Amino acid sequence: MMTAQIPDEFKDLLERPIYATIATIMPSGQPQLTEVWCNYDGEHVLINTARKRQKEKNLSARPMVTLMLRDPDNPYRWMEIRGTIELTEEGAQDHIDELARKYANVSKYYGGWAPAEAEGKETRVTGIITPTKVNAFNPPVRLHLIKK
């Protein structure tokens, strides 16, 4: 399957500290949705989780994913990324620290965002998402009609 491109005018949704919603498939076939931190390397979207969490179990069994990002400044502007995912432990600790700097403005995930005593008690994994389909929407919006 061909890799889909992220439209230039929507890359900011991956560059800014915007929470993404990731959809995975449970063993029963029911979707599971989780809020995640993510970043973009120019080709792949990267997320981070820990081994033995439901999301990791779902992705290990069924390496398909849908990620949804919505612009917090304009809720009518969004991007959906469908793709395949590869999980790797290599560099995953550095990656979660990078995400902690982006989203929480702390230098380290453990001891900065998560309790320091949790470090070493779980195995981090980076999920490397290869986009296969991207849907993005940015209609002309009459901002005065949006209820605040």
Notes on the protein architecture:
It is globular, with a radius of gyration of 16 Å. It has helices spanning 12-15, 54-61, 92-104, and strands at 20-25, 31-36, 39-40, 45-50, 64-70, 78-88, 124-137. The model has no long low-confidence stretch (mean pLDDT 94). Strand 5 (64-70) and strand 6 (78-88) form a beta hairpin. Strands 2-1-5-6-7-4-3 form a seven-stranded antiparallel sheet. It has 148 residues and is of the alpha+beta class. The chain is built from three helices and seven strands; from the N terminus they run H-E-E-E-E-H-E-E-H-E. The protein has a domain at 8-89 and 125-135: Pnp Oxidase, Chain A (Roll), CATH 2.30.110.10. The longest helix has 13 residues, at 92-104.
Short structural summary:
The protein has helices at residues 12-15, 54-61, 92-104; strands spanning 20-25, 31-36, 39-40, 45-50, 64-70, 78-88, 124-137.
Sheet with most strands: 7 strands, antiparallel
**Spatial shape:** globular
* Rg result: 16 Å
What fold name stands as the CATH topology of the domain at 8-89 and 125-135? Answer: Pnp Oxidase, Chain A
Order of helices and strands: HEEEEHEEHE
Going by helix content, strand content and strand pairing, the class is alpha+beta
Strand content: 35-45%
The low-pLDDT segments are none
Which superfamily, in CATH terms, is the homologous superfamily of the domain at 8-89 and 125-135? Electron Transport, Fmn-binding Protein, Chain A
Name of the CATH first level of the domain at 8-89 and 125-135: Mainly Beta
Helical proportion, percent range? 10-25%
Q: For the record, give the distance between the C-alpha atoms at the N and C termini, rounded to a whole number.
A: 42 Å
Q: Give me the CATH architecture of the domain at 8-89 and 125-135, please.
A: Roll
Average pLDDT for all residues? 94
Number of strands: 7
Major beta sheet, strand line-up: 2-1-5-6-7-4-3
Number of helical segments with 4 or more residues: 3
